[in-house]
Design brief:
2 copies of one chain form a homodimer.
Chain A: H1 8-28, H2 36-41, H3 47-53, H4 57-79, H5 86-103, H6 105-113, H7 117-122, H8 125-151, H9 163-180, H10 189-193, H11 196-210, H12 223-236
Helix pairs in contact in A: 1-4, 4-5, 4-6, 4-8, 5-6, 5-8, 5-11, 5-12, 8-9, 9-11
Chain A binds a DNA duplex (19 and 19 nucleotides) through helix 3.
Chain lengths: 237, 237
DNA sequence: ACCTGAACACCGTTCAAGT
DNA sequence: ACCTGAACACCGTTCAAGT
């Protein structure tokens, strides 16, 4: 432990000020045109200090991504408290996912950005490890739900699949839908025909029906769960 | 039509030389460090000429993406000629997708890159329209297959879904798996547990089982189709 | 009509000087 | 011990001059 004049809390707070400034800029403009100078201009201290906290521009963006994944985890955790069967809880998570995406497109897209190699190559080791930790946390939440479904006798996973694989099936599918529908380009036929909300719920049901996860989509009225989740999340985000 | 001293073919060839140089650089290094100067250094003409062909660095990368999507379409088209039921043809496409990804990670990741807003914002209108056209072409190929499955009485799509939605379900799922497993970071638990090949086939089957697409995964031996497709594609890519 | 590359504006990163 | 911002190296893009 090295001696510090500036205490940990001030440091942590300043880091947040930098992240907030970067997020504000991206909201008002776009991520492509973000520069360190533009962050510095919105912050009450100098370039050198910003570089004391973040080793590169990409490190700042990765920091933002981590904050988004962390929020997502909190949101998903609260979704699992939906009072119903496990399949409903999973739907509740999907709804939370799409609601948060609708409420804040900027932060939603940031999570996708974290996956691009350009960022991975320039972010600090420390920040990348944090990203991995947060990713595992999210994965663990999914796996716990799947474990519970198995215990409740709602789900028998195929012999060739493990719980993480089932979790990954639902996660990657959601991620894919959002990645492909991320930009609101109206010129594109695909994006005119598809609607994130509808596709997300529908594909989530397809995968769970494919797994034979009870109750099957046609044997249950999911609308109350969907409506309640939308209601609940709209108060949170 | 404006009069030209340099004919169309020379122009087209030179465009390809620029794209090849950029791809070579990315292969040898990485996309994050690509600069126009580095492309110019690998090409027998000047910066100004490069800018005569591409309006920005991002335009060059989008050009590369388009070339990748175009190759993918050709590959998928050849996969649909697999001699079997439509569900097998769909599996054959998935196999072709994963094989091409394994054979050339660089080009595969480029397709994902095209979806990031940083590129969309700086590429030329012309190049983006081309991207949309190629995307539609790919979508159309999927939709034709689904139509054929319906005609063959193998598939009855749910009343709340359209053929493009079913096509999008399979496409976005594949895309999501590849996006999340794209970088070979061994540090990450998720990527240690998952294997693109296995997940892609397995999730593809989950979605199609969920749709009740005949024959269901447990009622048929898919291995011959998988093996034959791998064999066939390995000769192509 | 087309190509060239010097020139310009801007960006990420560093580090000597200051407090 | 920490902060500052001038300085540096580099990058994307343009455009006057040349052929």
């Amino acid at each position: 432990m090295s001696p510090r004049v500036v205490d940990e809390e001030t440091l942590k707070a300043r880091e947040q000020v930098i992240l907030d400034a970067a997020l504000d800029y991206i909201r008002e403009n776009d991520i492509a045109s973000l520069t360190v100078d533009k962050v510095v201009a919105r912050v009450p201290f100098s370039k050198g200090t910003v570089y004391n906290h973040f080793c590169s521009k990409e490190d700042i963006v990765t920091g933002l991504c981590n904050s988004c994944v962390s929020s997502l985890h909190a949101l998903f955790q609260s979704a699992t408290r939906f009072d119903g069967n496990v399949r409903e809880k999973m739907i509740a998570i999907c709804i939370a996912y799409m609601m948060s995406a609708k409420a804040d497109t900027t932060r939603f897209m940031l999570v996708i950005t974290a996956k691009t190699s350009a960022l991975n190559q320039k972010a600090s080791e420390e920040r990348l490890n944090e990203h991995i930790r947060l990713e595992q946390q999210l994965m663990h939440l999914f796996c716990s739900l799947i474990q519970k479904a198995i215990e409740d006798k709602d789900l028998v996973i195929p012999v060739h699949m493990s719980p993480p694989q089932v979790a990954f099936a639902i996660w990657s599918m959601s991620f894919g839908i959002i990645a492909l529908l991320q930009d609101g380009l109206e010129r594109c036929d695909l994006r005119r025909l598809m609607e994130v909300e509808r596709e997300l719920v529908s594909h989530c049901n397809l995968v769970m029906d494919g797994l034979g996860w009870l109750p099957l989509s046609q044997d249950f009225d999911w609308q109350p769960c969907i409506d309640a989740s939308k209601e609940r999340v709209s108060g949170l985000v």
